[in-house]
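ok here's the first one, seq then struct tokens
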Amino acid sequence: MAEATYSLIRFQEAGDSKARAGLLAGGRVLPLDGDINSLIEHWDTIESQLDALAAAAGGDTGLALADVEVLAPVEPAQVLQTGANYRKHVIDLAAAHREPGQDEDEVRAKTAAMMDKRAGQGTPYFFIGLPTAIASATDDLTLPSYSKSHDWELELAAVIGRTAFRVTPEEALEYVFGYTMVNDITTREYVFRKDMPAIGSDWYRAKNAPGFLPTGPLLVPAKFFGDPQDVQVTLKLNGKAMQDESTQDMIFGVAKLVSEASQNMPLRPGDLVLTGSPAGNGQHWGRLLQDGDVMEGTITGLGTQLIRCKDEVATEGSKP
């Protein structure tokens, strides 16, 4: 029997508030028993069954994708986020924040040399996100009224398949179940504490508002995804490409990220490891998110996100 390509989703049927896991093959949704984390954790015993189920799918099998509401495909207990992990992105940031009088070309060259050294000798920069910020790939994004500096950061995310603790880079990808897409929304003015500059960054306030982690729509098993260091990350704002970069530009690849993340804490089945944002954020363009904006995010093989932005004040004012 030929192996069929498929992905996993979480969904709800019309009129039913219960979230279910499903196998998506050929535009049809095949409901599965158990929640998504249970499927990931017991993948070794059910993989062959799902392969066979996907191979046999067709015709009127299961449910039409158009007839279900697709939810975020994962329910992680832990979300690890990675900062400053795309070479061009870091160089652009350094150039944008250079001191008055500094030559831009010189700053770019110096930063590039630093990033090359970091790739060979340094370690990734991690921080923790809250699972409560996760939303689906089509949920509207409410822009909190406390700021006008909300920004986009489309990223590839690795989904952990089995408990990983202090694994090596050489074995790390064996612990990755698959991949999904996350837009890691950031409130720029909250990244650094102006009242306590010695403390540094404040990722809790900057990144964890409701809906600030649009995720999915698909969870693609690693065996179908191919090389995570050779996919394109593209975000369009109102139809214009703002981010369009290959994951080849990562300073630390997925294997290094998973390995390093596992050195301090065990990664559990279903956990997310975000891999950082490529160049082209709103801060770079001098254009941040506004009421009515539409973000269209794609990563090779992971489907499409379509997120509409709504200003919190405007939304509240429209209620009867």
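and now the second one, same deal
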Amino acid sequence: MLSILGRPTSINVRKVLWLSHELDEPFVNEPWGDGDASRKLDTPAFVVFNPNKMVPVIDDDGFVLWESNSILRYLAATRERADLYPIAPRERARVDQWIDWQASDLNPAWVYPFKALVRQAPGYDDDGMIAAGVARWSELMRVLDQQLQSTQAFVCGDRFTLADIAIGLAVHRWFATPIGHPPLDAVAAYYERLSSNEGFRRYGRNGTP
């Protein structure tokens, strides 16, 4: 059975949990990093799985893999779900483009304001940094809004793909963070559209930001 290592409150762990639901893949979730002293990420028992001391990690019948977006691609490919991760090079590249945009552009923008305003983490109390993060986050959400205006459905077109798992969770985090949200009608409609998906309700719009 597939083992998913990582606390289920982590946005990156929830990507893998949601995809496993879409795949109808049985799994066990081991909540490493949840605060329990026996499940700290810097323990030798975990470092053997991921030397970066981060979640998620999967163990798929002895094959260990880390990095959430790599895990999404691997699971969809090995379970032969071309609807979620197309085989045609151009269609696959479009999905990869938006998954990578989520990781390299969108995620770094929300880190500071999210940790300051939701997690209230020590050291994240600089008002200027919060404002700068919110401004950048809003700018990127406008990019997403333009894309969704074009597709009128999902991130890459009229079909749900891996890109919607990665970006859908980020959209939930956007709405769950107490900041001023510019009116982005296409993003709002997308959020409601995703909410008809059982996996999103369970692992995305479930009260966890």
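notes on #2: Residues 89-202 form a domain with the Glutathione S-transferase Yfyf (Class Pi); Chain A, domain 2 fold (CATH 1.20.1050.10). The mean pLDDT is 97.
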